[in-house]
């Protein structure tokens, strides 16, 4: 089968379209024929092997799985011996290790039926970013009506879902994003917008009850200054920090400080789970959330999609579609 793969950690220039063996599902896995794959920042960590601590899970000297990608939407091809929840022909979405390929294996508990009102491309934009936003707000922060919520990185994948979810809880959202994106985040439900290139992040008249940092590059001291005395900070992005620990260093400092403060300083490493995917499916079918897709790329241009993610600051998600994939 065709796949986007790399032999060594490094830049997107090390990725290539190549022929590799089709994966075989283990007992609790499902083989999915990929129809679309989402592109999210975690792919950059997979590709570069940074921060270095991530290599404990990814492979110390080179990637254990050379194929990139997590988000997937497609059709079940075969199922493992112990899988009873899916059968060949089912349309699914979720997380599979190595989704930039014609086929990927995914654990059955990391998949769910595709939302009926979403295309494969839209469904592929939902799993990792949607689950992260949902777990950050529903699992950590619990927004309430009229609470003030600050979303940093609001125009990215996590941020676009976080705005919609916070608004659905009745909260008032202030979005932090780059220039030219104010109308975009307002259309998602934000009532106030801060352009980080020209404005300081401040709380104005009211401190924020919840701060969701999906960008990961603001000092903890700044985030605490705009957070209410009993407020909740959720650090869901780890793009800052050094090469060894990345954003983990800031998160650890938050955990160390939190027991001595009225504020709750928490971090999140999201885990895609079947039950949360079912919740996202329900929310999508109800119209509560909708994927915001900046652009789709044909499979042959998947490397360009990753380069766009690195440098282009897309509005919402990027998606690779297999509709033009070469025949096996």
UniProtKB/TrEMBL annotation:
Alphabetical list of SMART domains matching this protein: PKS_ER (SM00829)
Pfam families reported for this sequence: ADH_N (PF08240), ADH_zinc_N_2 (PF13602)
Domain (Enoyl reductase (ER)) ranges: 10-320
UniProt-listed InterPro entries: ADH-like_N (IPR013154), ER (IPR020843), GroES-like_sf (IPR011032), NAD(P)-bd_dom_sf (IPR036291), YIM1/Zinc_Alcohol_DH_Fams (IPR050700)
Superkingdom of origin organism: Bacteria
PANTHER family xrefs: ALCOHOL DEHYDROGENASE RELATED, RETICULON-4-INTERACTING PROTEIN 1, MITOCHONDRIAL
Protein name: NAD(P)-dependent alcohol dehydrogenase
Species this protein is from: Streptomyces iconiensis
């Amino acid at each position: 089968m065709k796949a986007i793969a790399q032999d060594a950690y490094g830049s997107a220039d090390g990725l290539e379209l190549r022929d590799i063996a089709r994966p075989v599902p283990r007992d609790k896995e499902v083989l999915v024929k990929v129809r679309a794959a989402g592109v999210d920042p975690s792919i950059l960590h997979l590709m570069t092997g940074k921060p270095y601590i991530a290599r404990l899970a990814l492979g110390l000297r080179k990637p254990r799985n050379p194929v990139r990608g997590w988000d997937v939407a497609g059709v079940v091809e075969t199922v493992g011996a112990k899988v009873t929840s899916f059968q060949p022909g089912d349309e699914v979405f979720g997380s599979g290790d190595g989704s930039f390929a014609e086929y990927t294996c995914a654990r059955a508990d990391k998949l769910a039926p595709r939302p009926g009102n979403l295309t494969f491309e839209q469904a592929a934009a939902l799993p990792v970013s949607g689950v992260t936003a949902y777990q950050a707000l529903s699992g950590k922060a619990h927004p309430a009506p009229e609470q003030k919520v600050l979303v940093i990185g609001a125009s990215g994948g996590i941020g676009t879902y976080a705005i919609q979810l916070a608004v659905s809880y009745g909260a008032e959202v202030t979005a932090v994003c780059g220039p030219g994106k104010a109308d975009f985040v307002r259309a998602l439900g934000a009532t106030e917008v801060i352009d980080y290139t020209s404005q300081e992040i401040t709380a104005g008249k009211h401190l924020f009850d919840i701060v969701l940092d999906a960008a990961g590059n603001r000092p903890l001291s700044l985030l605490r200054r705009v957070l209410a005395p009993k407020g909740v900070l959720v650090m869901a992005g780890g793009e800052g920090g050094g090469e060894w620990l990345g954003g983990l260093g800031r998160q650890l400092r938050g955990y160390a400080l939190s027991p001595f403060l009225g504020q709750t300083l928490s971090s999140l490493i999201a885990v895609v789970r079947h039950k949360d995917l079912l919740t996202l499916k329900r929310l999508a079918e109800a119209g509560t959330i909708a994927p915001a897709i900046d652009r789709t790329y044909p499979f042959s241009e998947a490397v360009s999609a990753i380069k766009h993610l690195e440098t282009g600051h897309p509005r919402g998600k990027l998606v690779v579609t297999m509709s033009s994939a070469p025949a096996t």
